[in-house]
Amino acid sequence: MPIIEANGLSKTYRVYQKKEGLLGALRGLWRREYKEVKAVESVSFTIEPGEIVGFLGPNGAGKTTTLKMLAGLIYPSAGNAQVLGHVPWERADDFRRRFALVMGQKNQLWWDLPAADSFQLHREIYSLSAEQFQRTLGELTDLFGVKELTRQPVRELSLGERMKMELIAALLHQPRLLLLDEPTIGLDVVAQVTIQKCLRDYNSIRGVTILLTSHYMRDVEALCKRVLVITHGKLVYDGPLTGIAERFGNEKLVKLQFDGTETPGDLGAFGEVTSREGPIATLKVERLRVAEVMAAMLDRYTVLDVSIHDPPLDQMIAKVFEEGTTPAPELVEK
Amino acid sequence: MWRYLKLWLSLAKFSLLGEMAFRGNFLVKIFVEVLWLAILLVFNFTLFQQTTHIENWDVNQYLFFIGCYFAMGGLIETLFLENCNQFADLIRTGDLDFFLLKPIDEQFLVSCKHIDWSCAPNFLLGLGVMGYALWTSGWVLNYSQIFAFVALFISGAALAYGFLLLLTSASIWLMRNQSLYEMWWLFTTLMRYPREIFSHGNWATPAGFFFSFVIPIMLVTNVPARMMVKTLEPSWLAWYALGSAVVVLIVSRYVFRAALRRYRSSSS
User: Fold this and answer.
1) Averaged pLDDT for residues A287-292
2) Which residue range(s) make up the domain with B133?
3) How many structural domains is chain B composed of?
4) Cis peptide bond prior to B234, omega within 30° of 0
5) Which of A112, A118, A152 to mutate to test the interface with B (most CBs of B within 10 A)?
């Protein structure tokens, strides 16, 4: 049985359109104009237990809105969803005991107190037994490497340490589903990698299902085999991460090392030259023409080494996001 | 119920620890509250040097009334005012999300998350003033009277909390809470005076009736104080105050839950 089942989930907001200037503000006192903004439009997908799924999209695409509907924080305008066997926005206690939401830009720990005190409060809220609480807390502080920091006031922790504490607080009640909204935002590379590793380890130890939004492709590459791509509120891709290149990357990067000290001057005839450095050049070539172009170049030049690969994932994702401005490509099923 | 009581005690403990971290601020707040009571008492003693009664309240009865008002205000401010005041910010910043995610009654968590211990001395000072007023008036210990007073005091606090929650719920629509504060100060002003003050004049009489029976905020302190130091007239007023508290609590809970359904959660 899927952990998450979303069917035609939509959310439309009514947004007040404020007129400019004092006169506009005065008019707004008795007559207001509203605009309907479709934040999410008919989004459907399922997520199975134990999966780690990346939820990608540009700012304002509808990722967080979808996540908040799945967490039961906001009501959808249309559609339905089942999360852990519950309708999320009914906010049943049994449902809320079995999942957690962590938002990288928000802090839920008691700011002026040590994280240990906030953990105690979580224990009371989730009615955890003392033994279960101590055992889970011990495991998590070991896993995240913050055993020595739990007695330090939260406001005195670094951003990375605070995020680890946030994740520990979210995992104390051993949720079956973890919704993460940009958990590594603002963190340095080292902290990002540590958090990625902790999440991966926790997923393999506990089998927790994770749905993650992030603007850092490194997070997604490190954690997710499957991704959902949403632009302008519509789901445009649901499939394996590796399928992104196949689906949206209609170009390949061909890297060549030529005999001599310089690259030939007429490479532009074979494709777009993206870099030249000594005898090494990289060309962007249409996927379907790679074989033909390679044959022609090998015929014309002496090539010492060649490698063909997909463009970096973030470039392809940026392209997917751009495509969102045009009619959405047909949804690719998993 | 036991779980909620334990959780409330933990919240109270952590609130105290949080406030103790800023000891100077904590002490200044207590000092200001004591000063505020002293000004109120001096003002009223000055009035009673010119007259023996304000309406039909003599100096000791009136002193008891002030103590009752101060204790009631202290209780509401300690338990709920700060929480309700923060509610609009929680909505504006989207931090209300964390309250809704927890497997616990949202109203309980929103209303009780923070206990403002710096206002607790007001409650104790109010009790002290009431005790002093009873002692100087030669009051004879009467347990049934004390029981009735405590019951009506709690019902008054429940009534005030219900109104505060109604005002708080409006934050979902208003997004700002200045109007909440304005309304709350109007309410506390109405709680501060005996009802009889509003019994004369073309405007005062309807206003007194309105705030006693339609929006019965004046009953919050009038009913328990009158029960203790005077005769409650009309006698059914105690039942009216109790009934109002129940109705306002039910309505405020309904409105609060309706307001939560309108919550949009701010973007992250």
Assistant:
1) 87
2) 2-261
3) 1
4) yes
5) A112
In the CATH scheme, what is the homologous superfamily, with its name and number, of domain A4-245? Answer: P-loop containing nucleotide triphosphate hydrolases (3.40.50.300)
Find the helix or strand (DSSP H, E) in which A166 lies: helix A159-171
Q: Is the predicted pLDDT of residue A237 greater than 50, yes or no?
A: yes
The answer to whether position B266 is within a domain reads no
The mean of the pLDDT values for chain A is 87
Instruction: Please state the rounded mean pLDDT for residues B196-202.
Output: 81
pLDDT tens-digit map of B213-243: 999 999 999 999 998 887 777 778 899 999 9
Is B175 in the A-facing interface, judged by CB distances under 8 Å?
A: no
Q: What is the 3-state secondary structure (H, E, C) of chain B?
A: CHHHHHHHHHHHHHHHHHHHCCHHHHHHHHHHHHHHHHHHHHHHHHHHHHCCEECCEEHHHHHHHHHHHHHHHHHHHHHHHHHHHHHHHHHHHCCHHHHHHCCCCHHHHHHHCCCCHHHHHHHHHHHHHHHHHHHHCCCCCCHHHHHHHHHHHHHHHHHHHHHHHHHHHCHHHHCCCHHHHHHHHHHHHHHCCCHHHHHCCCCHHHHHHHHHHHCCCCHHHHHHHHHHHCCCCCCCHHHHHHHHHHHHHHHHHHHHHHHHHCCCCCCC
Pick from A74, A94, A113: CB nearest B14? A113
What is the maximum alpha-carbon separation in chain A? 77
Which of residues B100 and A246 earns the better pLDDT score? B100
Residues of A in contact with B99 (CB under 8 A): none
Cβ of A64 within 8 Å of Cβ of B10? The answer is no
Look up the CATH number of domain A250-309. Answer: 3.30.70
| B52: in domain | yes
d(CA A319, CA A236): 12
Residues of B in contact with A74 (CB under 8 A): 263-265
Q: Is residue B268 part of a domain?
A: no
Q: What is the pTM of this model?
A: 0.81
Among B3, B22, B268, whose Cβ lies nearest the Cβ of A127? B3
List A213's β-bridge partners, or say none.
A55, A181
Tell me A154's DSSP state: G
Instruction: Report domain extents, chain A.
Output: 4-245, 250-309
Q: Which residue of B has its CA nearest to A185?
A: B268
Kindly determine whether residue A101 and residue B101, on different chains, have CB atoms separated by under 8 Å. Answer: yes
Predicted local distance difference test score (pLDDT) of residue A330? 42
Give residue B66's pLDDT. 92
* Nearest Cα residue to B125 out of B23, B2, B34, B35: B34
pLDDT band at residue B267 using 50, 70 and 90 as cut-offs? low
